[in-house]
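Let us work through a complete example step by step.
Step 1: write down the sequence.
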Amino acid sequence: MKTTKTIASLSFISLLSLFSPNSYSSDVLVSADFNVGQGFNYLVNGTCYVVTPKHVLGDAQTANIMLPTRQYFTADLEHVFDVDMAVLESNIPEAQCNRNTFLQVTDLKKLLDVYQTGVLKTRLADGSVLQSKIVINTIDETEYLAIKPERADEPFKQGYSGSILFVADQAAGVLLEVDDEGGVVYRADALTQMLDEHFGVEDTADVSVVTDDAKVADDAEVTTNSHLTGRLAQNQIKDHEVKMLENSPIEFVLKANEGNRMRYSIRIMDRRENMLLDYDFYNDDPYNFAFTPPKSDVYIVRLVGLSSFGEFDIKMNDFAFDSELRGQGNTITIPTTIEPKVAKDSVAEYRFKGESNSPIEFNLKKVPGQRFRFKIIVVNSEGEVQQDYDFYSDDNYSYAFTPPNNDTYTIKIVGLSSYGTANIQIDQWVTDAVLKSPQNVVTAGDVIEGKLATNAVAEYRMMMTANAPIDFKFERHSKRMRFRLEIFDETNERRYSGEFYSDDEYRIVFTPLSSDVHIIRLTGISSHGNYTIKLFDYD
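Step 2: predict the structure and record it as tokens.
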């Protein structure tokens, strides 16, 4: 029997849409019979199904389902495939079924011909997402991929089954099983076909796509994924109580309405009606904004008519969840790229191991579209702020941070105005092992060159002879960096100190007062960049 399918997460015109590059990982965490695994949502005619590896259920017929919000639901076994996959019928409300939509690339084979690496994304018990870099070992052109962790000290673990594999930011399949060596992934194109056949999706004519959630009447329950529509007149007030989660921004999308022009306000208040947000709008212009709840509670969304009368059309969406913004899965290794969802008053956190005197570089890529402002704060394990810079999303930026100690540091991205998704590439600029290498020994005729950043220190040793001047010639670089050059004798007494900019040429001549090994020390003062200094005998 052919099924007309209401699509919210899976199967859209066969291969066109299994997974979305914008999704974080699996939709849900599945637990049954003391087993834990991953699953994703599949919405059919208003019923929210969950797809997960069959072995996650064991012999159980019912499973517990945890959403990214850490809300729990149940699901009953509905069908088992020949492959180790099962479909569960859940009691997840329709509005919460499509948190992560999965849209697959058009031609998975071409993608796998080019890329041999990817990222496995696994939802953890706190709702956050763990990202594991992987290498693709074997490609079965019909159904399977064999993968292994990029790092041998980061093996796959129990609970990873059902995780989504992303290749070049496109979803390529679902992890079926793991062992000490790696894992087996069921390809996205094979999974799409299998699910289409099970649910009877046969051709595009029989597929109906739902682009908006059902509209909510004034007296209906309102959630953070509701679509509010109706009429409003001057001085009329309409209140909606909405349960919201701390640090979980909600997007409000206001659609332009044809007809009578009306001015109205959207006010968000806490239970005591303390005003947290108050914006005015005209109903014939489109707008969008985000609100970040300061704590988990029930809030009042109040619509107030200010002038004339007319219709309103407001779509509310979960923009991000606190569990994703600062969960335990947000532990990164450098180099990496992070794409935090930023909204006013929200905070995203990422932890990394920093090495003393080993600068890391932040490259903030320009984000097209809406302009939002945010700041990046780096704090140490004691909670002490080490760095605090502000940025706008529609500009490119590049800067560096030098850890003062070996420690675990937290990168905090704090929204200051508007909202959007940032793109931050983090790289190892240079390491202490290079800056203070035992091989950093120079003589006249050599060139001192390398990278430096604010508070980073590079050292070179040079045997100098009393009354035999050394000529230092500084070459120009395009990027401007300010740094200090100091020379110390064998007793560690400073014999020279001067400050320079990397985008200018300089020349100094230093005359040693003693014949011994001297230390040439370069210290970054501001910005980061390259330096080149040629050494000559002055005579």
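Step 3: interpret the result. Confidence is low (pLDDT under 50) at residues 1-24, 203-213.
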